[in-house]
Design a protein that fits this description.
Radius of gyration: 17 Å
Number of strands: 8
Strand order of the largest sheet: 1-8-7
Distance between the termini: 35 Å
Number of helices: 2
Largest sheet: 3 strands, antiparallel
Length: 153
């Protein structure tokens, strides 16, 4: 999870940043989602199902920074890992968890489909030592929550 380590409260409405990653048409990311299913937990899918923001590396793993490049564009990732290696964005906002049952969220999102970005801001005041929580939305697969899935009949 991601905890607030400051010494003063953060006020309601404070913008934490935008979701990091490479904006890619969903169709171009389906192969990666199939080959590296672990990346699906970090890939932001826009509500219109046309684009995603993918903060994972070429093998679908989350790193401390996303470096850029579209895996469907030949040479794109090589360009970002060599000539543009100085360009990197922290993936810290990708580490915000959903709250446990009975707890509320304190971070909300504003999805901008036209500019293909997602802004994270505080829904209420957050105090030092408090964990940030976000709702992953109705289509997020929660089957792995709370232990193994129930047996099938």
């Amino acid at each position: 999870g991601l905890f607030y380590a400051g010494s003063e409260p953060l006020r309601k409405g404070t913008v934490l940043g935008t979701y990091p990653g490479v904006v890619i048409p969903l169709q171009q990311n389906l192969g990666k989602l199939r080959d590296y299913p672990q990346c699906e937990g970090y890939v932001w899918r826009f509500g219109d199902n046309q684009f995603v923001i993918d903060p994972t590396d070429y093998q679908g793993n989350i790193q401390f920074y996303v470096r850029g490049g579209n895996p469907s564009t030949i040479g794109s990732q090589l360009l970002f890992s060599s000539l543009l290696s100085w360009w990197k964005v922290p993936t810290i906002l990708c580490r915000i968890n959903e709250p446990p049952k009975g707890f509320d969220v304190n971070v909300v999102t504003d999805e901008d489909s036209q500019n293909r970005c997602v802004v994270f801001s505080l829904e209420r005041d957050v105090y030092p030592g408090e964990e940030f929580y976000i709702d992953y939305g109705p289509s997020y697969d929660r089957s792995g929550y709370g232990g193994p899935p129930p047996p099938t009949l």
